[in-house]
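Protocol step 4 of 5: obtain the predicted structure for the target chain.
Materials: sequence only (see below). No template structures provided, no constraints applied. The aim of this step is simply to have a reference model before the mutagenesis design in step 5. Sequence pasted as it appears in the construct record:
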Amino acid sequence: MCTVDGLGNTVSFLLSGGRVHDSKMAIPVLETINIAGSHVIADRAYGTQKILTYIEKQKTNYVIQPKKNVNSPWNVDLLLYKEYHLVEYFFRKSKQFRHIATRYDKLAVSFLSFIYIAAITILLK
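Step 4 output (structure tokens):
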């Protein structure tokens, strides 16, 4: 899981197991950066009450569309939500590195190291 800033530059990474849902890692990733006074933009999977409560406690706004099964959906700024593509662009760029796309490494440390190398290369371009 990764976070990006408003320009699409990576801010932090957190590697989890293959069977762990990304929403379980959202709060640990958000704890690594200062999100106060910003907007947290994410897809529907991150619209759990636990994540939304954490974001509100940090005195920041969330731009997360509610899941289809939510009883009381909230309003979402769709113009701001369009900036979500910056996260997807990073993943698309990182998949150009064959080593990351095919996940050759058996150790998480080695795989994460290559992700850092790819992120640095993407930033330098």
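Step 4 remarks: The chain has six helices and four strands. The chain has a mean pLDDT of 85.
Proceed to step 5.
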